[in-house]
Amino acid sequence: MLALYNNAYSTCSQKVRLCLHEKGLDWEDRQINFRLEEHLAPDYLKINPNGVVPTLVDDGDIIIDSSVICEYLDERYPEIRLTPDDLVQRARMRAWMRFLEEVPTAAVRVPSFNMGFLPRFEGLDRKQFEAEQSDVRPIRKQFYRRMGTSGFKKEDVEASFEQLGNTCRRMDAALESGPWLLGAQYSLADIIVAPLIDRMADLGFSEIWDPKYPRVADWYARMQARPAFQQTFYPGARMSEFLPLSPAIAGDA
Prior knowledge:
By secondary structure, the chain is an alpha+beta fold. It has helices spanning 11-22, 42-47, 66-76, 87-102, 104-107, 109-116, 126-134, 141-147, 154-174, 188-202, 214-225, 227-232; strands at 2-6, 28-31, 55-58, 61-64. A hairpin with a 2-residue loop joins strand 3 (55-58) and strand 4.
């Protein structure tokens, strides 16, 4: 029995859901409610001490970290392969995965939080915010402290957009060799970046790649056409569907 503790609009959860659907696996969807802080509850922290989603449970074995989960699933259930057999191509895929985790995965959180989640902290002073929001998070304490109740600063937002633009530039160059990041083969690299591109589109920032990087726009259209993508992004899986979005930089019209 596969069970995934996840959240509908978490980009890291979306990566794993996309992988599960691409592989055609049966799994139990265990939703974690962020508003109720279920990801910080003692019972959840016992299985994921990082206090984040997703967490995969496979017949009692616990696997954490979205990219690690995707690789685990591809090795554990190899009937549909999402990793190249060729060692050089596999290394290229893993280099993409490392870059995607270190750069755009972190960058996309900055506009996401500024635009959608700041109202949750209204009325909290700094001391309350740290006690109730930032300092209770095992690995995101400093991220929340840097954001504070008023959101990330203009320079933080601009830096995140620069990183996302650089990601699209790299993608566009790689896509010259084929429809997917590794050329002909669809892989975990495409899966891991897909929710990040979709999040920026949902926030209204598709101009990061369109029309500047047309191969990225075409890649995104191919991703959206895949049945697994449509299963992953069900109603309620995008921020704009249930949150009023504010400007990415506080004070902008």
